[in-house]
Specification:
single chain, 478 residues, alpha+beta, elongated
Length: 478
């Protein structure tokens, strides 16, 4: 796969993966020593199983498919099933693929580990809505262990979530597996991906899109974890996805970079429950890497050779390494940071949050360059979004770049603040010291209260309080 997580990863566990879909069963045999008729030039066998009576002839091989709804009889299978027979110890000794064997216990250990990360798996996947884990016991009966599902709804929607009361523990019914369609959320971002997502027409549409028309969307996502005893845990997120501009867009649309298939998409998932807070980095699937930010971030990152982290500065002396590192920096600054700013803006519209919005700002002392870049760029985007509240005009939300900040801990400032409010200047009070200092440090405020600022204002404009004239409503007006 593109990210090193494709089908070939199945060879970690098996030498003979099997794929069943429609009316065909495909048996792959890279060694060309196990499957009858397999050759080095054609290492496998495709069987049309309709009316072939395979389960009777080879019960050990084909009976397990029946437990998942496919009898390999007279009807097509309306889905796709992949079976990975575990590599035994004796097979591992002969294998040219891997010398590592797997037992039932090691497989159970893998499933148990997966359970600990299952809540994160579906966070940014576009076409997978539910994962169910069953065990097939010696009686050929399925025992449900747990399932995790994702449900989307439009931002601000009221009432219960879609399918909130629908059971998710019985996906396997009599007959074929009952399939569910992908998560239903559709928005402007999807229009760019119609057809070939990395073809020339995609990049033509992308480069022709005005900067202020680049797609973005924001939606709510609920992850539901269901245990075998019926217990359900729910984790809610607010997710922002954008197509970024700037240098990331330029790199993606540059014909010289076409082989990299760059897409300047960035997503941020902000937790709506305290239990959801994490700082994982995703390339659609979660990476072991952590950013140190209070949100989960996702993009079409270039990954390190170990697939454990994003590529950044590793072997950047080479031209390819420089391009890959430059891409990650650009997509973080132009797409991920923009998505981050949009999710902070949307948070202001949600009442009764269990996670204080202040905790979602990147106020930590970050150590790794990629995420420092995200932090810096986030504040530049935040500078031009109505994220702070002025005491003017019934506490209107304005851009920090049009506001005057001040330190409420400065006892001398209160009278000056009242004076400036009478002059109709949009003074804003940020109670949290860390956020206020961060906004000030990153140059987000249009000005910060000081003797010099007050003297400069009155020198240039004079006082109009006595004349009762109205100065411009606020610095929102250019």
């Amino acid at each position: 796969g593109r990210f090193g997580l494709g089908f070939c990863s199945s060879y970690h566990f098996t030498d003979v993966p099997q794929i069943l879909s429609g009316e065909y069963l495909l048996l792959l045999d890279p060694h060309a020593t196990i499957v009858p008729g397999a050759l080095p030039v054609a290492p496998g066998l495709r069987i049309r199983f309709l009316n072939a009576h395979l389960p009777k002839a080879f019960p050990d091989q084909f009976v397990p498919f029946a437990a998942l709804g496919c009898e390999l009889g007279t009807e097509k299978y309306s889905g796709t099933m992949i079976r990975l027979p575990l590599r035994s110890k004796s097979a591992a000794e002969r294998s040219e693929i891997s010398r590592r064997s797997y037992t039932s216990d090691s497989a159970l250990s893998i499933l148990d580990h997966f359970k600990s990360v299952a809540n994160d798996i579906l966070l940014f996947l576009r076409n997978v809505a539910q994962i169910d884990v069953y065990l097939l016991d010696d009686t050929e009966s399925l025992r449900h262990q747990y399932s995790v599902s994702a449900c989307e709804r439009q931002f601000g929607a009221q009432g219960p979530w879609p399918n909130e009361h629908e059971s998710t523990t019985s996906l396997i019914a009599d007959g074929p597996l009952r399939l569910r369609r992908p998560r239903p959320f559709v928005d402007d971002v999807k229009t760019l991906f119609d057809g070939d997502a990395c073809g020339s027409s995609f990049y033509s549409r992308l480069s022709a899109t005005p900067k202020d028309k680049l797609p973005k969307c924001i939606y709510e996502l609920q992850i539901r974890f269901n245990t075998c005893n019926g217990e359900v845990k729910k984790y809610d997120y607010l997710i922002s996805t954008v197509i970024g501009g700037g240098h990331a867009l330029e790199m993606a649309c540059d014909p010289q970079h076409r082989e990299y298939k760059f897409i300047p998409l960035g997503s941020v998932a902000a937790p709506l429950n305290v239990e959801c807070i994490n700082s994982r980095v995703f390339c659609f699937l979660p990476l072991p890497a952590r950013s140190g930010l209070p949100v989960a971030i996702n993009s079409y990152f270039e990954l390190s050779s170990s697939r454990q982290d994003i590529y950044y500065g590793e072997d950047a002396a080479s031209m390819v390494g420089k391009i890959r590192s430059e891409w990650n920096d650009s997509v973080i600054r132009n797409a991920v940071a923009r998505a981050y700013a949009e999710v902070l803006l949307a948070m202001k519209q949600i009442k009764h949050l269990s996670v204080p919005p202040i905790e979602l700002w990147p106020l930590q002392n970050l150590k790794l360059r990629p995420w420092i870049a995200c932090q810096e760029s986030l504040f530049q985007f935040a500078r031009e979004l109505p994220l702070v509240q002025s005491s003017l005009d019934s506490a209107v939300d304005i851009k920090p770049s049009r506001a005057i900040g001040y330190d409420p801990n400065d006892t001398r400032a209160s009278k000056i603040v009242q004076l400036l409010l009478k002059e109709r200047l949009p003074v804003v009070c940020i109670e949290d010291d860390h956020l206020r200092n961060a906004l000030k440090t990153h140059g987000c405020f249009g000005g910060f209260l000081s003797p010099k600022l007050v003297r400069s204002f009155y020198t240039q404009y004079g006082s109009t309080i006595k004349d009762k004239k109205q100065r411009r409503p606020s610095l929102v007006d250019p």
